[in-house]
Amino acid sequence: MVTFHEEHGTAMVRVAKRTVRMDISEKSASVCPTPFGTGGRATTARRVPMKWGIMAQRSHRTRQTGQLITPGAPCDSVDQVHASGAIVLAVSADVLWELLSEPDSIAVWMSELHAWTDPTPDRVGADLELAAQVQMFDMRHDVRLVVTEYHPDRSWTMTCGSVPGIAVTFTIELDRLREVSRVTLRTGLHGQVLRDADVVVLRQAVQRGLDSNLRQLTEIAEMTFRTPAAVVHHPG
């Protein structure tokens, strides 16, 4: 359960049967007027400072090859962009999964998600399709996020293919280690629109958005579970 108080710049986040207060003043949070289910809840509408469009304008630099620009599979040799990162938490994976699989909680830490626009279930599940607004290329888009891969208590992948010329995937992976849990986030872009962008700069912008998501997850976990977190960066 997420309740925003714009005048105070805070959000009350209900995670794992606990309520924590978050400072969201930098995000200019507001409440969307669309009802969120039959219980009278509202979806969250947030304006995030990082916009892919500003970072994706073509520069005069020559495109690089190798790790940052990977031709191939799912879009017939169209450029692709990938970013990833992880946090390690001294929290039970079973408890942490609630934070990662509840649409209400996802709306708090996922910077690309502007709002859910239809009622959502309590949990993400296989083949689930969610109506949402996402912020990409300096614009908001009404999209359908489809759960294309789902492994209970371990991982999910949402795919957004309704923005013309581009497909985006968001992946969460939860690993149970000996005394800690590791959460890995991955974001992938591919499509014709990347041919008109500086892919190297775009990847940097996507990585910044993913890093923002990791910071939000870390803050929520630290306030909810009173545990320190370590951020682990991946090459993408």
From TrEMBL:
It holds the Pfam family Polyketide_cyc2. Transmembrane segments: none annotated. InterPro entries: Polyketide_cyclase/dehydratase, START-like_dom_sf. This is Polyketide cyclase/dehydrase/lipid transport protein.
